[in-house]
Amino acid sequence: MDAADSATAEALQRRLTEISAHEQGDSSRAALSGRDLGLFTLVTLGITVLGFLVLAL
Amino acid sequence: MSGNKQGNATPAVGETSGSLGSLPLLRTERIWNGADFTGVNISLAIATWAFLVGGSTALLVGFQQGIAAMVIGNAIGLGFMILASVVASQRYGVEQYTILRPVFGLVGVGILVFTVILITEMGWSSLLAIMVGRAVTQVSNSTFGTDFGPESLMVTFFALVAIAVSWWILSRGPVTIGRFNKFIAPGLIIVTVFLMVFLVINTSWDTLLSAAPLAPFEDDRLNFALAVEFNAGVGVSWYPVMGSLARLTKTPRAALWPSYGGLLGATLIAQIVGMAAALTLGDSDPTVWMLPFGGPILGAFILLFIAFANITSTSSIVYSTVLAIRQASGNLLSRVRWAWLCAGFFVLPAILAFFPGFMYLRFMTFVTLSGAFLAPMCGAIIADYFLLRRQRVALEELYRHRGESAYHFSSGINWAGLGAVAAGAVFYLVIYNPVTLTTQPVFSYITASFPSAVVGAIVFYVLARVLYVRRGVGGYAPAEKAGRNA
Prior knowledge:
The structure holds 2 protein chains of 2 kinds.
Chain A: H1 9-22, H2 34-56
Chain B: H1 4-14, H2 34-45, H3 48-60, H4 63-85, H5 87-92, H6 101-104, H7 106-144, H8 153-171, H9 174-202, H10 205-210, H11 220-236, H12 239-246, H13 252-281, H14 286-328, H15 338-345, H16 347-352, H17 356-361, H18 363-388, H19 395-399, H20 415-431, E1 432-433, E2 438-439, H21 443-446, H22 449-469, H23 479-483
Antiparallel strand pairs in B: 1-2
Helix pairs in contact in B: 1-2, 1-9, 1-14, 2-13, 3-4, 3-13, 3-14, 4-11, 4-12, 4-13, 4-18, 7-8, 7-14, 7-18, 8-14, 8-15, 9-13, 9-14, 11-18, 18-20, 18-22, 20-22
C-alpha cells in the first residue's frame, strides 16, 4: 500500500476481498453503458443547440 | 468550485469507515440514489458565486445573449467535466484524486493538486472572503452611516475575519460544516426567489431585453465568445469536488444525470437571476443589489446571510482541497495536524484579501485561467478512462506502493498526462490569453475550453500509446485481461 494512504493495508485488503467476492456483478459497479454515454452526448449537444436558438430568436 | 452541499454530505459520509479516506466504498456505503444526488447538486449550484457569475456575464452581453452564453457555456463545460470527474469515481467508489493515478501517476497527481487545484480553490476562497467583506461594509454603511468603499481596509478586515471563522469551522471537522450548511442551501434558494420576485415586480421583460451590457468590448462577437468561455470555465471549475461526491451514488445513472441536470438547471436559474439583477441595477457586484432590492432592514439581513453563506462555502471548498493535499503529499504532510494544514491553506487567500479590487476585477480572468488547465486535464482523463482503458481500472494497483504499482509509470509520473495538460493549456493560452485578453480570430467561433480539452485528449491518446501502451507499461492491458482486475 502506498505511503500516501493513511488507511491501513489490512482495511484495504478487507475491502478488496469484499468487492471481489460480492460486488463484481453489482449494479453499483457497472460501467457506464454505451447507450447512456451516447444519450448524454446527445443531450449535451441538444442543450447547446438550444442556447444558439435563444440567441437566434 | 465547491459548494454548500459538500458540507451537507460529509456528516453522512463520516458515518462510514471508508468514505472519508481513500479506500474504495462498499455497496452498503453508497447512500445516494438519483433523487438524493440531484438535491445535492442543486444545493451545490445555488450559491453566491452563481450571482457573481451572472453579474459578471452582464459586463459583456445583454440579457438575451447572456442567457444563450450561459446555456451554451455551462452545457459544454459541465458536459465534459462530468464525464471526467464523475464516472470513474462512481464505478469504483474511489476518491477522485486516487482514481486519477492511472492518468497522471501518483507524483503527477500531486503536481496537479499542488498547482492547478490548489490555486483554483485558493482563488475562490479569497473571492468569497472578499465578498463577505463587501457585504458587511455595505450593511455598516447602510445601518451606521459609515462610508467604507468597496476596496477599503475594512473590506480586507472583514475578509480576514471571514477566513478566520472559516478556519475555525473547518478545524472542527466535516460534521460542523454539515450542521451549518443545512441552513445555507435552503436560505440561498429563498434569496434567489426573493430576487426573482423583486425583478418581476420592478422591471419589465422589455427593459431587461433592451438593457445594455455593463462594460463590453467593441466587438459583439468577441463579447459573446468571452461570455460563453467564461461560463464554460465556470462549468469546468466544478471538477475538484464532483468525483468525491459521485462515489457515494448507487449506480452510474444516479451519478451521471443528476450531476448534469442538477448543476445545469440550478446554475442557470441563479445565474440568470443574477444577470437580470445586474442589468437592472447597473452593477455586477451581488453585494450592491440587496439594499436597493430589500430596503435597509431586509437588505441588510440578506447581506449578512450571504456573508455567512460565503463563510460556510469557503469551509466546504477548503475541506475537499485540504483532503486532496494531504492525500497527494505522500509522507510530507501526513503527520501535520488538520488544523495547521487548514491554516496553511489560508495563507495565500489572506494575502489576496488585501487586494479586494484586484480580485473582483480579475474574477473572470481567474476563472478562465483555471479553466485553461482544468479543461485539458478533463480531456486527458476522458481519453484515458473511456478510450484506452475502456472504463476498466485495477483497484488494487491504485493503492500499491510506488514502484510496485502498474500506475507508477516513470518516477510516479504519467508523462502522457502531464504532456496533455501542458499542450492543452498552451493551446488555450495561444487562442485566448485571459491575462492580456489577446485572442486569435478563431476564438470568436470555437472559444477555448472545449477545444483545449480535445487537444488534451488527443495528445494524451497519442503519447500514452507511444510511451506506455505499446511497451505494456501503465496497466493498459487488453480488455479481457483487465476485466479480471476490474
